[in-house]
Every structure is written in structure tokens, then in C-alpha cells.
Design brief:
Number of helices: 27
Number of strands: 32
Helix content: 25-40%
Largest sheet: 7 strands, parallel
Strand content: 15-25%
Length: 953
């Protein structure tokens, strides 16, 4: 007994030893564990030690060195990139296909180039002899960028790049016989994702047969005619049998809708691709003893406008019928196992059963190894990864008991389903015994089990984050910058415009102003629109079922505060009944609070020498981008709008050309630049509208924070306070950590979201929370990201990011040599007027951000020069008015800050005392405008003659 008691005493004293290193507030026993985060806080150290002992990675960056062959690249990879390439290289020895999940801006294209260079290098691998073939499938706007990256990293004598623009190029490659011989160097083939999947239009090869006849019968001497149907349904074009399908455990004939959708267009489905009828082989005269085989005749054929009937006459056709073949089908037919590596970029868009996903699957089957690259692997739903993983690792999923199409079983194992049973309430009581009053619906929630990572991704995926690239990247700051709906009634000055009136030879300067919307203007109208929509949605939900107005509620309340002047009303999508009248359309002449905030933000960044990228999601008919462009250009800010008419392959070059032209603000929809494009020249990104698509926001918010950026980067999410815009930003911030959990950035919130689910799609959750006033339970974006406060001293540009070099002709060396002349500090400018000479001087001397101010205040600059200013002297050359402006740079301040202050004072109006009087004793009307001094505007007083009445308006 004494021994037992002493053991118990020692045990009790040993327990607290486990909590010596636990911080205050964290769990210290199993009873206090409430979440996975608490469990990891208590046992995390032991789990990590156990995992490190039992699970040895194929490549450990802390212990292993990267491949030596990567040092032979023209531009060496960064350390983190080299370790990723080494891990992929070692992984290919065990797995045929792998996934590279790299955060936006980590250089996935460069790592893929290093990957196939390492595979093909003769000194490190026995598979190839320094020569091989690589096929890239990329989005159409990244075709030229991929070729440029290959040219930067590899020596031009080691590779050749071939573009496959359509199926004709694939046929030419087949006919050339090049693929039948061994490669002579590294052959890189690049095909756009949209091009690879394009093919002909299908039409049913099966025919719809409706055979009816009239049966004549005689009864009691009277003749009767009865209509009989012998055969009605689809007939196989080969065996002639009626096509059948399995439905609820029985075999029934296929109906007309099995080949056509609700819109009357042909629809290929899993059960209507081939004929499943059994055809007798007639090997035995006894039908019961004879053998049968499946017909397997394709039930679809290419739609051909030149098809002719058996009689030789042309057959009628309807709709478009292009004569072309899918390049993916040609690859499958002629290039089996001809490539050493297939690389697919932005594969998060290839996770479904689309034609593009099928094209990538074909390229994988034509290659010995495959690499799928993406910046955001998962969109939140477990089913999102099923088809991509099945295409890349079919044996693994088959060994786990999955078949193609078992998405439901996949969700049951790795996802979350929600079953909602609705019982209609009668006047008396709930009647759940009748099936007519009870309805159940099952849907998938955006969640994934942690086992999905361990079972399917742990040994075939490599993850790299921007935090791994900290050695080469500047600081990134992101957060919300919300604005109040209420504003002050005042006038805001616009740019000084140069106008030429009829009858005048010279152009005159005119200044305009735009009134700020009153504090009640937008808020009161938005409240009424919101109330009408909320009332209509609640009324539909009370009637039972799902409201079809949730989409209208979401889009209207997100877009109306930004473009109320383009509001066209809200109508019920089914009945067409008016929900909100178009009379709530507001004026487009006033300046709204959020627009004023954007103008202030842009001005501050331009004054610091930075360029700004502005995102808006409600474009097109809403014309948000055109509105913002007009407001910015009114203030002399040079802008450019990237629209959808700029084709994908030309967008990168288009942006570079606008940068060379001196564009200060780039406006675009984030979906146009969400993948692949670099915005290094625009270190400040402003989400004027975010929308509710998490993947698009994640991709677009990192277009500036990429390798090669040397300036502080900032991403701002703007919205109106206490509106659906603020709710959308808050939920976006909350979902961000959950979306990153599967990519290796685990946190307590992310793990909880993986296991508990999040209650539906982001769009549906925004709408339902807003209708139910369930906004207080949402954590604010400021608490997640932090308030958007940036030290102004850090905004200074370290080095302007140069626009990417495009493919141009090589310059010809000059054959004339010039000797350097001594540089003089005095320069002269001649022009017809002093203002023209000053503008020419400013263009050569003044910083770009101050040139706009000088151009706007050119009258004040002229007055200051005429009064006398150090460094600038104006002389008249002739009686005709020609002016010579002499500039002596040595007389002006030499330091940058002093020179900028000197230029700023040059554009300030000279001080003149002006008496403040009122004509005729009338009251003065004061208008508040931007500037240091308040301008005074007097009422006009008219002289009243005899016989007239005076009215005071």
C-alpha cells in the first residue's frame, strides 16, 4: 500500500511538468481542449518530433543541398526556388505526376523551366542525353511570357520554342516527321489552353423515330380506325435497336430530352455517348446458345455543313458548323509518349470536367511525366479536386475504391454535406406524414477534411509561399479602407482645362468644379432600396423554399452605392414584377464619398512617385471604370482602362506600352489580370470593388508583390461602412485563412474551417447574413488584416520597376561615334508664348508628379516668372510675341526636397491683397473649394429702370 501511494504521489507531481512551457491562457489538460488548435497547442511539439522521426521527406531544405545543375542557368534561381525544383526532381523518381502549388509571385514558370532543364541534363539523369521535348499548356495571355522566361533562363543554343496556334500547326508538326526522330536540343512546345480544347460541334448520330400507324378493325359491321405506336424513341445508327437507359433499377427507353437540354441544344452526357445494345453474333443457330457483344457504336458525330445524303443531295443543317479538329484529339492520336514532360499552368481552373481539363489530361497521357502548377489549389470545396486528382493519380484513387464519377463518395469521405428537410406548415399543424408536405435537399458545403492532404497530396505536392521568398521581397501591407456614406456638401475643383471658343484664335484656361453629394443623398436612397429588397426576400422565404431574389439582392446592394447613376431598377426574374423602381437612380454630376476617397488616395501615391492599379468588378453595363477614368482625368491624372476587347496574349504588351507612355493609374477588372500578369510598375493596388469570388481576389491582390519588386507594396480593399460591401470584405478576410489551410498555411481558424464547414458559398452567405441581420457575428477585416495605415516615409520609390521587355527587333549599332561635349548649366527654350516655353521647360526638368500641377496652374507660374524668380528669365525676341526662356540650373536649389519645394512654390498664386466688398450692399455667397484659401463669389446685382420690378432670387 505504501508503494502504491508513493507512486500516485509521484505521478501527481509529474503532471505539471507537461505544462511548464505552455503559455498563459492555453489548455493544460484534455478537459480544456475545445478545438484542433487547442489540441495542437498542447501536443504540437510531441507530434512534430514524432513526424520528423517517422516521415522523412524526399528533400529537406535544412539538410540537403539543391541540384548543382541549376547553377548552369543564365539567371540562377533563388534559394527557395532551387530547393523546390530539387524536391520535384527527386519526387519524379517515385511518382509520374506531381503538383506545384506556389503562391502568386513566387516564380512558378521559372521553377518549371529549371525542372525540365534538370530532368533533361545529361550529367544528372540517365533518362535523357541533354535533349528532350516539353509541352506547355498555359492560359492564352501567358504564351509570350512563357517563351520570354525560357529565353531568359536558358542559353539560346540549348532550346527552340514552337507555338501551336491551332490544329493546322499540329498537323504540320505531324507531317514534318520531327516527332518520329530523336530531339536535337531541348524542344519546347507552347499551346494556349483555349486552343487545345477547341474542336468541332457535335450532333446526334442516333435518329429519333416516331412510327405510328392506323389499325383498321371491324366490329358489328362497323369499321374503326385506331392509332397505334409501334416504335417511338432513339434508334442506333448501326444496329438499329432502340436505345435504352437504366432508371430506378429498370431499363426504359431513352426520351427526346436525353439528347437535348431544356434550351433545345444537343447535350452530350455519360449515358448517351455509345450504344449499349447487345448484338447477336450468329455463331450458333440457337439464339439461347449464341454469343452476344455490346454494339458500342458512337452516338455522336461531327456537325458538317458539307455532308451529303446517300442519294447525293446535300442535307440541310442548322447553326454554325466549323470544320476544325481539336488539337487535343490530334495529340491523342499521333503523339502518344512523344514528350518527356507536360506542364499545365493555372490548374486550379482545370479541376472540373471541362473541355480544357480533358485537353490537359490528353497531354499528360502523351508525356512521360506531368507537372500541374497553380497558385490557389482549392476553392474551398472537396469535390473541386476530385477530377484533377483522378486524372493525375488514377491508380491511387482506384486503390482507395474510387471510380470515375464517384464524386458523392469522395464528398462523404473528404468533404461535408448538408441535408435540409423542409416541412410545409398547414393552417392546423405540421403534417410530416405526407410526402407532399415534406421535401429534402442535399448540398455540399465549402469544407475539406485534413485527411485529404495526408492521403492524396502529402507525397506528390510541393508548396512554396511568399514568406519563403522573404530574402528578395519588400514589405506587403494590406487591409480595408472603408468610407462613410455621409459626406459634406462642398465643391471640389477639377482640372484646369484648355478650351478654344469659336471666334477666338488663342485657347483660354477655364476651371470647373464638381459638387460633393450631401450627407443624406446616398445613404437615404440606399436605405430605401435595401428595405424594399429585404422585404421582398423575406416574404419569399416565409412562403417556403429558396428565394430567387438573393442574387438580385447581392448584386444590387454591392453595386448600387458605387454606380447609383446607372441604376435601372430590380425586377423579379420569374414574374417580371417590379421590386425596386428605377426612380432611385441618382445624379451623375455629383462626387460621391468613395470616389473622393479614391481621388485622394491616388493623388497621395502619385505625389510620392508611385503608380496605382484600381480594380472594379461591376464593369460592362455598369461602366464603373469609365466613370473613375473621367473623374481622375478631370484632375489631370493620366489613366488607362484595360478592357475585355484586349485579347489575352496582347495584355502584357499592352500594359507595358501604357507604362512607357507615362500612365499613372491603370483601371481594370481583376479577372483580366488574375493569372500570370505582372504589375510591378503599380506597387499600390486599390480594390474599388471586391465582388465575392475569393480566388479572383486572392490572385489579383498579389499582381504587384512579385519577384523583381523593390518598393513597398500595398493592397487596399475599399467599401462603404455599414453596408453589404463591408460585410463582403469581412467575410473575404475570414475565408482567406481557411482557403490557405490546404496549401500548408495552417492556423487554428484554417483547421477549424477545414473540419467544421462554413455554411455555404461566399455569395449565399453574404446574402443570407444580410437578410437575417446576422452581421455582428462576423469578425471585421480590420481585426484580421489590421487597419490600413502606412508610414508615408516608406512610400518613396526605391527604384522604378521597368516595364517587361517585349519581343522587338534587335537595334542596329550606330556607325558614327560622338565625342562628349562639356555640359552647360544654361538651357534656352523658344516658343510663341511664355506659357508654351514654360511647359517645354517643365517637361524636361520638373518631376513627373509635379508637372501636372504646373500644367494646371500655368497662369500662376507665368506671373511668378514675370515678377522675377531665380533661375528663370524670360526675354522677348521680336515684336511678333516670340519668347525666349533661359534656365540656369545652378541658381535653383540642388537638393531634391528643396528643388521640389521650389517648384511647388512656383505654381502658387502670387500674394495680392484684394478688398472684400459687396456690390449694392448684398450678402456674399461663400463656396468651399479645395485649396488653402477660401474663394469668394459675389451675387450679381442688376440695375432696375423705371417701370420694371426687381426680384431677389
Amino acid at each position: 500500500m505504501e508503494t502504491i501511494e508513493s507512486a500516485e504521489t509521484n505521478l501527481e507531481t509529474a503532471i505539471p511538468l507537461l505544462t511548464d512551457s505552455v503559455r498563459a491562457g492555453e489548455p493544460t489538460s484534455l478537459d480544456e481542449i475545445e478545438s484542433i488548435g487547442d489540441y495542437l497547442s498542447l501536443f504540437g511539439a510531441d507530434l512534430i518530433r514524432r513526424l520528423d522521426e517517422e516521415y522523412v521527406p524526399v528533400h529537406h531544405p535544412g539538410r540537403d543541398k539543391p541540384l548543382e545543375v541549376l547553377e548552369n542557368l543564365n539567371r540562377p534561381l533563388f534559394s527557395a526556388q532551387a530547393h523546390v525544383v530539387t524536391a520535384l526532381f527527386k519526387g519524379f523518381k517515385k511518382n509520374r505526376n506531381q503538383i506545384l502549388c506556389g503562391m502568386m509571385g513566387t516564380g512558378k514558370t521559372a521553377m518549371s523551366i529549371g525542372m525540365f532543364f534538370a530532368l533533361i541534363a545529361a550529367e544528372l539523369t540517365e533518362w535523357l542525353d541533354g535533349k528532350g521535348r516539353v509541352i506547355y499548356m498555359v492560359p492564352n495571355h501567358l504564351v509570350k511570357k512563357t517563351k520570354r522566361e525560357v529565353g531568359i533562363l536558358l542559353d539560346k543554343n540549348l532550346f527552340e520554342v514552337t507555338f501551336l496556334n491551332d490544329y493546322k500547326d499540329v498537323i504540320k508538326l505531324r507531317d514534318s516527321g520531327k516527332m518520329e526522330s530523336a530531339p536535337t536540343k531541348i524542344e519546347v512546345y507552347i499551346i494556349a489552353r483555349d486552343t487545345a480544347k477547341l474542336g468541332y460541334i457535335f450532333e446526334p448520330a442516333a435518329t429519333w423515330v416516331d412510327r405510328t400507324y392506323m389499325k383498321r378493325t371491324i366490329f358489328d359491321g362497323k369499321e374503326r380506325l385506331n392509332q397505334k405506336t409501334a416504335f417511338q424513341g432513339w434508334k442506333c445508327p448501326c444496329c438499329g435497336g432502340q436505345l435504352m437507359k437504366e432508371e430506378e433499377g429498370s431499363i426504359v427507353p431513352m426520351e427526346y430530352e436525353d439528347f437535348f437540354n431544356k434550351q433545345g441544344k444537343p447535350a452530350r452526357r455519360k449515358n448517351n455517348l455509345v450504344c449499349r445494345n447487345l448484338v447477336r453474333l450468329y455463331k450458333n443457330s440457337d439464339p439461347e446458345k449464341d454469343e452476344y457483344q455490346e454494339c458500342s457504336t458512337p452516338l455522336w458525330q461531327a456537325k458538317n455543313k458539307d455532308r451529303r445524303s446517300f442519294s447525293g443531295e446535300s442535307r440541310a443543317y442548322g447553326g454554325a458548323s466549323p470544320r476544325k479538329v481539336s488539337p487535343a484529339d490530334l495529340f491523342k492520336r499521333y503523339f502518344k509518349n512523344k514528350f518527356d514532360l507536360a506542364i499545365g499552368d493555372e490548374c486550379h481552373e482545370l479541376t472540373g470536367g471541362s473541355a480544357q481539363a480533358h485537353a490537359f489530361h490528353v497531354l499528360m497521357e502523351c508525356s512521360k511525366h506531368s507537372l500541374a502548377m497553380t497558385g490557389s489549389l482549392m476553392n474551398g470545396y472537396a469535390s473541386n479536386l476530385f477530377e484533377l486528382l483522378f486524372r493525375m493519380f488514377p491508380n491511387r484513387l482506384i486503390e482507395n475504391g474510387f471510380k470515375w464519377g464517384d464524386v458523392g463518395r469522395w464528398i462523404d469521405l473528404y468533404g461535408v454535406r448538408e441535408k435540409v428537410t423542409k416541412i410545409r406548415k398547414d393552417d392546423v399543424a405540421l403534417n410530416s406524414s405526407s410526402n407532399g408536405n415534406k421535401r429534402a435537399s442535399v448540398k455540399e458545403l465549402p469544407a475539406a477534411a485534413p485527411q485529404l492532404f495526408t492521403d492524396m497530396l502529402s507525397d506528390v505536392a510541393v508548396f512554396i509561399q511568399m514568406s519563403d521568398m522573404f530574402e528578395v521581397l519588400p514589405e506587403l501591407t494590406e487591409g480595408p479602407m472603408n468610407v462613410s456614406l455621409h459626406g459634406d456638401r462642398q465643391f471640389i475643383s477639377c482640372m484646369t482645362r484648355i478650351e478654344r471658343r469659336s471666334g477666338q484664335k488663342k485657347r483660354s484656361l477655364s476651371k470647373s468644379a464638381r459638387l460633393v453629394a450631401p450627407s443624406w443623398y446616398l445613404a437615404s436612397n440606399l436605405a430605401e432600396v435595401e428595405g424594399k429588397l429585404r422585404e421582398a426576400v423575406v416574404k419569399e422565404l416565409e412562403g417556403g423554399g429558396q428565394s430567387v431574389l438573393l442574387g438580385s439582392l447581392l448584386s444590387t446592394l454591392l453595386s448600387y452605392p458605387d454606380v447609383p447613376f446607372n441604376f435601372e431598377g430590380v425586377y423579379h426574374p420569374d414574374t417580371g414584377k417590379e421590386i425596386v423602381s428605377p426612380n432611385y437612380r441618382l445624379s451623375s454630376r455629383v462626387l460621391y464619398p468613395k470616389e473622393r476617397q479614391l481621388i485622394k488616395f491616388v493623388r497621395e501615391r502619385i505625389n510620392a512617385g508611385r503608380k496605382v492599379g484600381v480594380y472594379a468588378t461591376f464593369t460592362g453595363k455598369m461602366r464603373t471604370l469609365q466613370r473613375l477614368q473621367m473623374l481622375l482625368e478631370e484632375r489631370g491624372i493620366k489613366t488607362a482602362v484595360l478592357e475585355t476587347d484586349i485579347e489575352g496574349p496582347a495584355r502584357e504588351e499592352w500594359i507595358a506600352e501604357r507604362e512607357r507612355e507615362g500612365v499613372q493609374v491603370l483601371l481594370t477588372n481583376p479577372i483580366l489580370v488574375s493569372t500570370g500578369l505582372d504589375l510591378l510598375g503599380f506597387p499600390s493596388l486599390f480594390f474599388y470593388q471586391t465582388g465575392y469570388r475569393l480566388n479572383i481576389v486572392r490572385q489579383a491582390s498579389r499582381r504587384h508583390w512579385r519577384i523583381g519588386q523593390q518598393n513597398l507594396c500595398e493592397t487596399v480593399y475599399s467599401g462603404y461602412k455599414d453596408t453589404m460591401q463591408e460585410l463582403a470584405i469581412n467575410l473575404m478576410a475570414a475565408k482567406m485563412s481557411a482557403a490557405l489551410a490546404l496549401e500548408g498555411q495552417f492556423s487554428q481558424e484554417g483547421l477549424a474551417a477545414l473540419t467544421e464547414g462554413s455554411g455555404g458559398s461566399l455569395a449565399t452567405e453574404i446574402a443570407k447574413r444580410f437578410v437575417g441581420n446576422n452581421i455582428s457575428g462576423v469578425e471585421s477585416a480590420e481585426s484580421i488584416w489590421g487597419k490600413m495605415t502606412i508610414d508615408a516615409s516608406k512610400l518613396a520609390v526605391v527604384k522604378p520597376a521597368a516595364a517587361p521587355a517585349m519581343e522587338t527587333e534587335e537595334p542596329v549599332d550606330s556607325i558614327i561615334s560622338y565625342e562628349a561635349d562639356p555640359v552647360s548649366s544654361i538651357r534656352t527654350y523658344q516658343a510663341e508664348s511664355l506659357q508654351s516655353a514654360l511647359l517645354a521647360w517643365a517637361k524636361d526638368t520638373v518631376p513627373a508628379d509635379l508637372f501636372t500641377r504646373l500644367e494646371q496652374q500655368i497662369n500662376f507660374v507665368e506671373q511668378n516668372v514675370l515678377k522675377g524668380i531665380c533661375g528663370l528669365t524670360a526675354n522677348s525676341l521680336s515684336l511678333l510675341g516670340d519668347i525666349e526662356l533661359i534656365w540656369d540650373s545652378e541658381q535653383a536649389p540642388m537638393e531634391t526636397e528643396s528643388f521640389r519645394r521650389w517648384v511647388y512654390n512656383l505654381a502658387v498664386k502670387p500674394v495680392e491683397e484684394r478688398p472684400r466688398t459687396s456690390v449694392g450692399g448684398g450678402k456674399t455667397l461663400e463656396l468651399i473649394a479645395e485649396g488653402k484659401k477660401t474663394k469668394i463669389k459675389m451675387k450679381k446685382v442688376y440695375n432696375v429702370s423705371e417701370g420694371q420690378y426687381a426680384f431677389n432670387f
